[in-house]
Each structure stands twice: as C-alpha cells, then as structure tokens.
Amino acid sequence: MPRRDKGGHDKGDKGAWATTLIITMSKPEQIDLDKLEQELLAAIEAAADLRALEQIRVGAVGKKGRISGLMKGLGALPPEQRKTYGQAVNALKAKVMEALEARKEALAQAELDARLAAENADISLPVRPAPLLEGRLHPISQVMDELTEIFADLGFSIAEGPDIEDDFHNFTALNIPPEHPARQEHDTFYFNERQDGSRLVLRTHTSPVQIRTMMSTKPPIRIIAPGRVYRCDSDQTHTPMFHQVEGLVIDQETHLGHLKWVLQEFCKAFFEVDSVKMRFRASHFPFTEPSLEVDIGYAKQGNEIRIGEGDQWLEILGCGMVHPNVLKNVGLDPAQYQGFAFGVGIDRLAMLKYGMPDLRAFFAADLRWLKHYGFSMLDVPTLSGGVGA
Ligand code: DAH
C-alpha cells in the first residue's frame, strides 16, 4: 500500500512499514496508524503520574478520543477497506489499552514506593523534646502552686479579687481611714479622679480580698488569696509590681494559737524541713489587733541560705487577729466572730527558697534566666512528693 505520511517516521523501524495503513475518510484526512501508535505509546511511557496518564487515556480511547474517532469513521469506508482497517484499529486499541494498563500499574507502584519512602520513620533518631518539656514555669507560678497545695491540705480554698481596687476595699474597710499615715507607706498608684472625685487604685496589697470575701461569704471562712500587687517603688529588692498571698480565717473560736500553728505548718511544708525556728514580734497593722511580724531562723553557708538552722533572722510575713473595726465594716459582729489574717510576699519566698538574688530579674523576661530558674510543667507540687521541684 502506498505510503504518504509527512515524514518523521523512524526509518529504522522496518516492521512498522508492513502494517502502515493510510485511510481516506469522508473529510479526507490521512491517518497513519503506525505513527499514531508510536505517538500514543511514547506519550503513555512518558506520563509522569496517574493524572497525566488518565488524560492520555481519555484523549485516545475516551468517548471523543482519537481511536474512538477512528472507529466511528469506519462506516464511511468502502466495505473492502472496512474489515482490514477495522481490525488494525482494534489491534491498535488493544495495544494502547494494554500499554495504559501497564503504565498505570507502574505509576501506582512508583507512587506507593515514594509514599512509603516519604512516610518512613527513622526510629533510630533520638526523641525530639516535646514543647511541653521545653517550656518553663516561672518561679512565681511554681511558688503559687506550692502555696495552693499546702493551704489546700490545711482546708483553705482560693479567693480572688481585682487588681484595680476602690479606696473602700484597699484602705477604708481595712481600718485605714483617709488621712491615716499608713496610706503614705503604701506608695499607691492612683488612677485619675472620677466624676464623683474618687480615685481608683492599683491594689497595694492582697488584703482587700479579705474584705470582698467577708462581704460575700458567711463564716466559717478559710481562704488564701494569691495575686499581684502594686507599689511605686523600684530597686534590687522592690519592683512596682510584685506578688502576695493573703490568708484569712474567720470563725467563732479562732485564736492566736491557731494562727501560730497554721504558719508553722506552712513554713515547714514550704521550706521542706522538719522544724523551723520562728519568732513572732509585736508589730502594727491597722487591720489587725494584736499585730505580729514573723521572722524565721536561718544560717548562711557560703552563698547558700539554710532555713530552720542557725541564728540569723529573716522577716517573712505580717499577721494578726482581724481588727474588730474590720469585722464591723463588713457587717460581722466582733462579739460573735473572730479570726486571723496574714500577708506574705511571694517573690520574697521564691528568692529565699530557690536562691535568686535579684528581684528585678523576675520580670525581665530573659529566657536564659527562665531556663535556669524555671520549672518543668510536669513538676507539679504535691505534699506527698515534697512541694518543691
Ligand atoms: N497587707 C500587708 C502589707 O501589704 C500585709 C499583711 C499584714 C496582711 C498583716 C495581713 C496581715 O493580712 O494580717 O504589708
């Protein structure tokens, strides 16, 4: 049969000449089946992935594909050509289908291999540290957790109050009336005057939480209130914001012995020692009567402070029996109820227990400091395990 392709045929492919067919269709168009076969097989072989292969399949044997088009054109051929040509198109279709199938399998296998290689985990690699283990709890948070654990064990619950307070809760109700000299000692941060002339303050101590608790809860009351407090003061041992924990117990037969016992138990548990030397000194706070300050005994060995030993004294807290005026201010009858209160500087406790010399470093947000002094999230303080980390 004469051959009139437009060149580009592989001259080395002798066998292809024998099967070359040239057909004339209704819209005269010459189709070289050999060439089409080579083209399709090459495209199938070159298909990079299953999607590309599918496109080739649709283009060849899909409804509007090239081979399907040839099939449809068969009817237009003279009968003598129809048979041979039909068989050749069918053979081409079978070959292409076979090649498609083979390539599909190869690609699917390659895709699976690639996925297996990518998802392969090298179990000999060291375990990457989990973010939870990398992060550190600030010593203040740690000490607050320790305090909570110790006092919860003694039957106390946690109370909270706002950082922005009014004059009544921060001062007046605590038996610090206007013009009282104690107000000057507090280095208070005041807000601008409100319309009625009053000024809100950043609370200068956690004691206003006593007032809020007594006004909202019926005795018996046993609470601690840890939180931030603010004073306009800054040097190596003072920062404008620091932390306190307030304690309050109100009941019908509460006395100084209870206060002493609670504080002793607290110090032993917190400093993790079997006995602590404590000294109760007479003092003055407007909201307690009598008022006491508590020192604990310590010994200094080199740079280390040992709590519970030695003959040096360190002041750690203020306390006393709640003043009858305070009880009256919150509507409690001092003839029926008494109680005790105490206030401790948390930052001070943390510095003492964990040997941190400069308070300002607490709030400098230096990650190196936090890595050194911080605590692992998983070191949850428990009394059974010793509250410290
Ligand atoms: N509020 C006091 C202060 O900030 C500390 C304090 C002393 C609290 C005696 C108390 C207390 O509850 O009874 O200096």
The overall average pLDDT, rounded, is 87
Report the CATH architecture of the largest domain. Answer: 2-Layer Sandwich
Q: Provide the CATH top-level class of the largest domain.
A: Alpha Beta
How far apart, in Å, are the first and last alpha carbons? 95 Å
Task: Describe the protein in words.
This protein is α+β, with helices and mostly antiparallel strands and 389 residues long. It has two domains: 14-118, no CATH class; 138-373, Bira Bifunctional Protein, Domain 2 (BirA Bifunctional Protein, domain 2). Helix content is 40%, strand content 20%. The chain has helices at residues 14-19, 33-46, 50-61, 66-73, 79-118, 131-134, 139-153, 167-170, 182-185, 208-216, 256-271, 324-329, 346-354, 367-373; strands at 157-158, 164-165, 190-193, 199-202, 221-230, 241-251, 278-283, 288-301, 304-307, 312-322, 338-345. Strands 1, 5, 6, 7, 8, 9, 10 and 11 form an eight-stranded mixed sheet that branches. The longest helix is centred in the first third of the chain and has 40 residues, at 79-118. The protein is elongated. The N and C termini lie far apart (95 Å). 30% of the residues are buried. It binds 3,4-dihydroxyphenylalanine (DAH). The site of 3,4-dihydroxyphenylalanine has 11 residues, from strand 10 and strand 11.
